[in-house]
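Notes taken during the Thursday session

The instructor put the following on the board and asked us to keep it in front of us for the whole hour. The protein is Phosphatidate cytidylyltransferase. We were told not to look anything up and to reason only from what is written here. First, the residues (449 in total):
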Amino acid sequence: MAQDEEGDVRRRVMENEDRGDQIPLGSEVESDDDRLPEQSIEQRTKTIPQGTDQEPSFLHTILSPLPPRWRNWVIRGIFTWLMIGLFCLIIYVGPLALMFTTLLVQVWCFKEIINIGYSVYRMHGLPWFRSLSWWFLITSNYFFYGESLVADYFSVIFSKSDIMRWLITYHRFTSFTMYIVGFVWFVLSLKTRYYIRQFSLFAWTHVALLIVVTQSYLIIINIFHGMIWFIVPVSMIVINDVMAYMFGFFFGKTPLIQLSPKKTWEGFIGGGISTVFMSMMLSYVMCQYPFFVCPVEYSESEDSFRYECDPPAIFRPQEYNLPETLSNFSALLGWKKTLTVYPFVLHSVALSVFSSVIGPFGGFFASGFKRAFKIKDFGDVIPGHGGMMDRFDCQYLMATFVNVYIMTFISETSPQKLLQKVYMLKPEQQLQLYNLLQDSLIARGILQP
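Then, after some discussion, the predicted structure tokens were revealed:
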């Protein structure tokens, strides 16, 4: 028995010697079997910029007499209003500016998430991984944006070019080819003793793409249904975040969840109630302006995008009968037994409830992610708030719900969208479609011969 143990020890020593021969002296490379200790993870993640406590020098001088808690509150408030002002300016410019901004935010969020992976998994010395991560980001964006936006909404513009028509026709094949190039590139970059870390970052990259690229794509799809479907949900998250912070700051005493020790039940409930009522008021105001409610459509005759339309029924006042109890009470007061309201205002209640109850869980998810890697923020781009991902963690979850809500309860087949597809056909195919449609209408008695 002792001989077996001695032989086992001798075998392990020889294996370690063999491993030492394979790794150059002075190399920082570790084997796949090595574990990253907690101190090492914490030390490496300290290289990630921490933004909540960052203070611009001029504000630090002005606010130095204040206690740290109030100083952070003031800085957070200042940059909150600056972000709201910038958001309003982008809205004023129009939908295309919103789409471009969404794309920029997506790229920045992806960068912040990937940087954490590099820091934790020590990928800086591995070949091609930064390039591969950005290649997969480009490939994903090419697929998603080309699949729907270019083919459905911008098809009339791009179909005027033979090259763009070819790209639209073979879009999926091109996207698949780009992904295969990245896949083969990754396999060829694999190196002995690095496998676990390389596959870890490969998975990390794809999860980041799923969270960031897919959600930002849905945001842009929502914009095309009308800017109100973007502005109101985004505002709901902002209102809920601000009001929950205010209620929690002044009245918070009861902890809400361990993942975010600063979150309180008082802030959660106060923020939720505030979000419902403020969102209804915002929705009521915005429903009155075609610029916000009209779908973004390209006009072939005007050769430009138009934001004027006959508002859909959901954005026109409708009269609803009150429940019997409320109608009797209303009659006693001499009021009408009906209620006239924009249907979208009623839909906004459902959206605001989701943003207040489920939306914060996007933030809790991000908090758990940051705690797992012992970091305070994703970055330091926004003083008082942290990184871009710290501000948009809840927005992405909200965008998915809004898109599902539109497709389930709101969306209808639009003749304008069908025309976009028809414009992509060749002239002889358009004429054939016209004749077939005309024959069908005559046969059904809808059109006189």
